[in-house]
Amino acid sequence: MVASSKLPLLLLLAVGVTGKTGKLGPKQSATNYGTNIMVNAGDIRQSIDVEKLTTYLVQHIPHLKAPLTVKQFKFGQSNPTYFLEDANQLKLVMRKKPPGELLSKTAHAVEREYKILKALQDTPVPTPKVYCLCEDRSVLGTPFYVMEFLKGRIFEDASMPQLPPQERRACWLAAVDALTKLHSIDPKSVGLSDYGRPTDFYPRQLRTLSTISQTQSKVTDGATGNSVGDIPHIKDILDFFNRNLPKDRTTIVHGDYKIDNMVFHPTEARVIGILDWELSTIGHPLSDVANLCHPYSLPYFKGAANSGFVGHEVEGIPKLEEVISAYKKGSGVDATPDWTFVSAFAHFRLAVIAQGIASRVYRKQASSESAHRTAALFPVMGELCWSTIESAVPSSKL
């Protein structure tokens, strides 16, 4: 049986959102089929030299024709993301490392994104085509890469309220299917044997994340002098993880596998592109499964970022056990025995990521309009991580 965790009301209030829980049924399946990606592109918030960018791309993408129209997507908290369109209406997407001194060497690795996307081009894994990587800082100040723009649907809300129940279910199972395709790829067969260490994924992640979190916690706001602070219960959390490590497994892992990091076909229930590969590596496949299933542990709050399914009956969304079963059917790996560890670890990892966004807010480096809201989530994720452990493990073993 897969254990579920409960989040105290106090934590919900800490997020600063309001809403009503309820049931989502067929009558609420609207004509708006998913988020039109272009709705999220607008004015440039972090300026770039469009003339230099145009000159570079004309030299490296033969069929591109000047001038370029450039807009910035509202999403992309770690790496600023831009929509590009040339004179022939060729549509592209650019991902750029943010400016300034960065605390983490891995959290903004656009070079790694480009490398893995290029490696997966001719595999069954749905990915956008990549065109070029620029590491010459004289062009835009930091490295960037350019890929094709995928016309499709991005569901910012994992409950997919725009869809009828049958399609909602089919889209979720399609996300599981795309993940099993990724995990079936032999890293050596696509030139990724050096993409990460093949053993001890979770021990290495624990060391890295705890070090990053410690650094992030000490960042101060220049105006107020306040520091970001620690993730709640971090000492107890790390102690539990170190004493309960799962059996080692090795695959290519996405690192941030979730519904809103996928582009679905405009009308069909299938994934046509997996996005945001900056945290990808060689690691434990269940880390991706747990991250995909994160909404099953979070409460539902209408209109809130990172809203989940708890307290919100959604027709068509498969049960957590069904998702785990579908993954086992496609991959041969059963997540159930290690679920407490991998799900709690997913919460902890997101706490560190949110804490990182908080540190960038404090350093005036945030690159997303929603960064301040996401930054407030790191204490919530820390509490959720600990409650997941407490609800599944006898107190005598904590």
Automatic annotation (TrEMBL):
This is Aminoglycoside phosphotransferase domain-containing protein. Residues 69-296 form the Aminoglycoside phosphotransferase domain. Gene3D superfamilies: 3.90.1200.10, Phosphorylase Kinase, domain 1 (3.30.200.20). Coiled coil: none annotated. Pfam families: APH (PF01636). Keywords: Signal. Residues 1-19 form the signal peptide. Transmembrane segments: none annotated.
